[in-house]
Predict the structure.
Amino acid sequence: MGNFLDTPVTDKETAVDQDGKVAYGLSAMQGWRAQMEDDHVQLLSLSPELPEFSLFGVFDGHGGDMVAHYAAKHIPRFLLDTKELVPGMPEVDVPRKAQFGFEKAIMALDAQLQQQPEVQSGQDQSGSTSVMTLLSKEHIICANTGDSRAVLSRGGEAVALSYDHKPYNPIEKDRIENAGSHVKFNRVNGDLAVSRALGDFVYKRAENIEPEKQAVTAFPETITQVRHAADEFIVLACDGIWDVMSSQEVVDKVRSMLQNGRPPEPPVEPHEIPEGLPAAEPPPPKQPPRQGDLGAVSECLIDHCLRLGSRDNMSVIVVLLDPRLMPKPEVDVPEGNPCTSATEGSAAGSGSADSGAPGGPTVAAATGASSG
């Protein structure tokens, strides 16, 4: 099946954490792909000197996982090295300085990636999208490179924090053609499905053209939103989610789970029942269901997208802005996994223990388990 498996890998890496001002839950699953190429960054505090900033990001690798892992590991340092964000800076300066910081950091990281031995030798030709949000007391700044996506729920309405970079978009297509490449089958040179990415240096070889104007560029597009009392949560996810759900559908799904708890276990379709088991009796789950928390919400969203037909790696971060939506632990967890169909299972990792926070409303103490 090419780079697809015969059956999906549904074990998950899941984490939750909160610091009194913001909370998050993340989950990542390999799914049908032969390799897990996603990575993520989640920092409640960007640094001890900058506790007022939080950073969250999803990196969706393709052609290998090296670039995604490198970006997730090193982007905080590159962002700090720009010196655009400084302690005690006025909030009015944050949007402009954060934009400059993201632009400098992402381009510097991409330049350093190009110097890595495995890239220089041609051994690694992978790439990765990148979508990150920086939270301050009064602002949300999103920097996007590629077709991962971030969306804000504001009173239940989906507010775009990023727009997908596809080769057929007019601005992207013009840049691709001006760099001597072309768009065929809605792909760069008939091959790459995104027009901006970290890595992918085979598409960045046009002579006498600066990195920002190469056919495929790492240069991010930034969007800033002023924080509002109606802001509820942010969802950052790779295209494995957005391939099967719209931004509003994701907001509706996550909001429903935050307000009403996890949905009941979906019915078992006949083709999902392993041979030898009676149709009326679904097989037991691989793992006990996860107690209700933001990690469980992320897991449920991934499992929902798997049932909708997503065949890609899937990574999701739910960043909670409104403490009134903090999930409550379930007193009686039903038999089976209420997030998944009967043939799917879930394994959860544990959350980190970062400290520090952006401003905004105070989040109540975390509830629910940090591991499945």
Observations:
- The chain has a mean pLDDT of 86.
- The two ends are 31 Å apart (CA to CA).
- The first strand starts at residue 4 and ends at 18.
- The domain at 4-325 is CATH 3.60.40.10 (Phosphatase 2c; domain 1).
